[in-house]
Amino acid sequence: MITQLKNGKLYDPTNGKDGVIQDIYIRGGRIIDKPNSTEKISHSIDLSGKVVMAGAIDMHSHIGGGKINIARMMLPEFQESRRYSEPEAHICNPNCSHHATPSTTETGFRYIEMGYTAAFEPAMMPINARQAHLEMADTPMIDKGGYAMLGNDDYFLRLLAAGKDQKAINDYVAWTLHATQAIGIKVVNAGGISAFKFNQRKLDLDEAHSYYQVSARDILKSLSRAVYDLGIAKPLHVHCNNLGAAGNFETTLKTIEAADGLPMHLTHIQFHSYGTEGDRKFSSAAAEIAQAINQHKNISADVGQILFGQTVTASADSMMQQINAKHANPKKSVIMDIECDAGCGVVPFKYRDQNFVNALQWAIGLEIFLSVNDPWRIFLTTDHPNGAPFTSYPHLIRLLMDKSFRNEAFAKLNLDAQAMSNLKSLAREYSLYEIAIMTRAGPAKLIGMHDRGHLGVGAGADIAVYNEQADREVMFSKPAYVFKDGEMVVKAGKVVKVTWGATYTAKPEFDIGVEQDLKQYFDRYHTMQLANFKIDATEISQDGRGRIIVSKQHPIRS
Amino acid sequence: MFGVDCDLNAAVIAAAKILNDSNQPLFAGLGTEVQGMRSVMALAEKVGATLDHMHSESTVRNTLAMQNSGWQTTTLTEVKNRADLIVAIGTNIVTSHPRFFEKLVWNVDTLFNKATPEVIFLAATGNTSAGISPDGHAPTIVTAETADLPAIMSALNALAHNKTLDAHEIAGVSLTALKAVLAKIKAAKYAVIVWSVGCLEITHAELTVQSITQLIATLNENTRVTGLPLNSGDGDSSINNASAWLSGYPTRTRFNVHQRGGEFSYDTYHYSTQQQLNNCDGLLWISTFNAYAPPSSLAPTIVIGHPDMQFTQAPDVFIPVSIPGLNQAGTMFRMDSSVALPLKSLRKQVLPTLSDVLRQIETLLA
Predict the structure, then answer these.
(1) Is B78–A197 a contact, with Cβ atoms under 8 angstroms apart?
(2) How far apart are CA A236 and CA A225, in angstroms?
(3) From CA A409, how far away is CA A407, in angstroms rounded?
(4) How confident is residue A558, by pLDDT bands cut at 50, 70 and 90?
(5) Which of A259, A92, A79, A225 is nearest to A156 (CA)?
(6) Mean pLDDT to the nearest integer, A529-538
(7) How many helices (H) and strands (E) does chain B have?
(8) Chain B CB within 8 Å of residue A325 CB
(9) What residues in B contact A197, CB-CB < 8 Å?
(10) What is the pLDDT of residue B258?
(11) What average pLDDT score do residues A147-169 get?
(12) What would the DSSP string read from start to end of B271-292?
């Protein structure tokens, strides 16, 4: 059975296609060459006047695991907001209330309805990974995967403090990827979550952890080396130290230097680009950060744009969330220490355009988007739900593509914040081709999903078709069609067929001998057995809906 | 079929008829694990059921406190390796979680060379011997009734804010003793306040939970103090978690079939088993871990659960099912809600699983 998509205008950066009118043929869930004349086309759809892109990939979105579920439990009032805000993606004013804590079903539906066909949970705590996979298994429509968090777990810090060699670290990192069914490794506030448990309240890049006597720099160097040595496609995912603190851009710049040429991805970089200038000692350091990214080709970043409205911040960074809890709105928060592994902090936030800091945060995010030159190394995220719910992506795309729309929004901000931003002087408007890079081709390349994010022959047929419209927010909120693995699943912005995606993982080779010591460690100090910590692939596939894809990685480099 | 042995198929047909005929069914008990809860939720969406767990009278106390002002908590491995002071609220954790002290307090192996923890029982009403350390160190015992906890916790909160109290004693406890408790918490490197919420059988216990969590939050400004809320079992953590991600709400929900194409609503008061028993016209009671029988009800009743269940009032349908972790695999959240564990099937499975039965019922619904 062959499906033909006729006369669409393709934006496919992986294959260098910038608005080329071309037909696409699909068979068995994949894009195929033009069939010869003897083969029967069973179904043909005319896409004249429509924009065709690969399905979008959200490379950083908190869609599974304990933190978001805690947010759901703490904030039942958020569920009510569904009633007021539909269609969510169109409304984005100071009073808007996107739904920050959707159920798993709603998560899958809202993503696919915007043309997103994959999303990655970026903060999977190894000890809590089973829950993350349970939630992702109940998320329909999209593919998913998770980055396992290391760098605050006692076992790793102990290896590092004892001066174990890189091979020992690499084996532990690889073992963790297998045991947690993850595709990448993340570090959150390197050492800081652990240090908070020892009552340290702040940890700079070169400050020693009071117990292990290792620094954040040591942790980042060790883990970025491990990820590189093991040939993992996804660079180490780094949530820098000092999130949200005025003046933290210096930590971020030093972190870029600490990468020492190895691949490193700095996540939600907007939250790490703050200076201390001005009367309020809070300023934009977007220019410095963007310049550093432009200069360091080994560095990539996603923005973590904030948009105004009610949301909730859910982070593993218990150290910084303990501080942020003072600004909670509504006034409540959950801060947890978890299993000598990591922690979490769930703090509701309401970003307001008349608030100086919030308004400047909004501007800083956009300044970074517009000042980083290479769209292959900057990614469109709101750090869902921390900066805003993912349903606001179409609005964010319009802000990037439409200068006058952006400047009108800017003119409504807190005046002191306006005075502190150079946003109006940034004339850049993203093209559809660049949007396709930062939301499709770029994330697929970064994560190592070789057959996704593009429309070439052999690619999985995850395809989003949009009606070309001047209002890019309207355009990207409601695709004409979305195809998942070749099946039409969305028509006119509504789900017409429910499907269940796959879970992407990385499984590098390693020395299984690492388990001997780990088993003893679990038996002596933990409250669960090693065998129960490990997640078997059948746990994800057993209900007949989910399946594991082991993504091909680079060769081992060590 | 009443009182008659029959095959599974006949029982499933009878159960489906009860649900088909019911306008407002109540699914209660819910003693199951994650996979079972997934099937429960799917069925609830078909028939528009109200959902409540058998222990949520106590779970809700914690949830309400957390929804009102949040909390700061910890988990078992942290307690085991880090706690140098355990403040037990009441003495009932010894009965609700008999191995708590042995496994998490008197453990010899620890990661950070901490001292053997000191133990304080606050509002002790029963046996405190579990708090005697292996080397014979006795716990600090503050004797008071559970009903006095609101006063005691309020006094501790006031003292933590450096307020002067115009009293020598609070609920029979000397101010000196309370100040000593506070001093110990402040001096500890990692103090853990633990409560077993099922044992807080007092009016508006959620407010007492909240005063515990507020004390923790206040002291955490300068030192590390954290809470460990202990749940009541029978899958309450699993049900609460699965419900939250599937519906957006923790337990005590209802699926409203007719609202906006169907959606869940949440009400910790009206959707309680106690309230709904008077209003429902069909009861599905589930208890797979323990042979707990359903509460008395005038509504037609289906029971799916532990094969040893005994009834004083025979239900209309009883379907015995396998026990998760014994003769059926599954997934279970631990009491601290942060770790999910695989349950293995240890014995041959002879009975159907809860999910098998619910799916069969679902296919027969009109």
Answers:
(1) yes
(2) 9
(3) 5
(4) low
(5) A225
(6) 96
(7) 12, 17
(8) yes
(9) 78, 82, 190, 224
(10) 81
(11) 98
(12) TSHHHHHTT-SEEEEEESSS-P
Return d(Cα B286, Cα B41) in angstroms, integer.
13
Report the percentage of chain B scoring pLDDT > 90.
Answer: 93
Q: Cα–Cα–Cα angle for B89, B92, B93, nearest 5°?
A: 75
Containing domain of residue A157, as a range?
56-310+352-389
Number of domains in chain A: 1
Q: Looking at the partner chain, which of B38, B75, B248 has a beta carbon nearest the beta carbon of A79? A: B248
Question: Looking at per-residue confidence, does A71 or A93 come out higher?
Answer: A71
Mutate to test the interface with B, among A155, A336, A521, A541 (most CBs of B within 10 A): A336
Q: Which helix (H) or strand (E) holds B190?
A: none
H helix intervals, A344-502? 356-371, 393-401, 403-411, 415-419, 432-436, 442-447, 472-477
The whole model's pTM is what?
0.96
- A288 to chain B, any CB pair closer than 8 A? The answer is no
Type of residue found at A65? G
Backbone angles phi, psi at A374, to 5 degrees: -95, 105
* Cβ <8 Å between A336 and B72: yes
Residue A336 burial by Cβ neighbours in a 10 Å radius (0-12, 13-18, 19+): buried
Which residue reads 């699909």 in tokens? Answer: A26
Q: Which residues of A touch B338 (CB under 8 A)?
A: 66, 127-128, 131, 336, 338-339
pLDDT at A83: 60
Within the 87-126 window of chain B, which residues sit less than 8 Å (CB to CB) from chain A?
103-104, 109-112
Residue A160 included in any domain: yes
In a domain, residue A1? The reply is no
B170 near B152, Cβ under 8 Å? yes
Backbone φ, ψ for residue A402 (5° rounding): -130, 100
All residues at 6 or more sequence positions from B108 whose CB lies less than 8 Å from its CB, including other chains: none
Instruction: Give pLDDT, residue A256.
Output: 98
CATH number (domain holding residue A282): 3.20.20
For the ranges A94-108, A178-192, A199-213, B234-248, which has the lowest average pLDDT?
A94-108
pLDDT band at A460 (very low <50, low <70, confident <90, very high): very high
On whether residue A184 sits in a domain, the answer given is yes
What is the structure's pLDDT at B264? 92
Helix ranges, A310-385 (H): 318-324, 356-371
Beta strand pairing status for B263-266 and B282-287? unpaired
Q: What is the ipTM of this complex?
A: 0.97
Residue A143, domain member (yes or no): yes
Q: Map out the domains of chain B with their CATH numbers.
A: 8-55+234-364 (3.40.50.740), 60-230 (3.40.228.10)
